[in-house]
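User: Hey, quick favor. My workstation is busy. Could you predict this chain's structure for me?
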Amino acid sequence: MAASSVVSLSSAARDAIHGAVGAEESHHMHMYMHDFSTGPNPSAVVVARGTGTGPTLRGSVDRRFGDTLVMDDALTDGPGPASRALGRAQGFYVAASSAGGDPAVLVSMNVLLTSGPYNGSTLAVSGRNAVLAQVRELSVVGGTGRFRMARGYVLMKTASWIGNDAVLELDIFVHA
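Assistant: No problem, here it is.
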């Protein structure tokens, strides 16, 4: 009998949450993330140095297994520096490949949207970024505002990469 009560309570809680959130919708957003760790105003900074060695990233300087960077990257509607601001990508990434020719970083970031219909909403994004792959897929694991209880994925491509500075193209697909 106790198990039956738990199931009923869980179903009631689910229904209450679903009712509070409303009907689920699909959303697609396209934007560019400007990740710069060099120059006078970097948007990504090393906060911990790794001790290992690892695959060298094409053209990058002094990146190794365990390096941890914190980022506050601009999100824009185009790849150029003068493109319209859409928000910020705030979080961290860690060089997670210790050997071989497949460099990857663990990414954990919040996509903060600061304009348009989703202004003030966030998406929580996490996953493995195999930086040399043509297209990488990360998970949308949650969100706030219009994206409360979100789930989905991000397709990431490199638009440009010079040294340790990159512009990444993001296609975000969300259900919330």
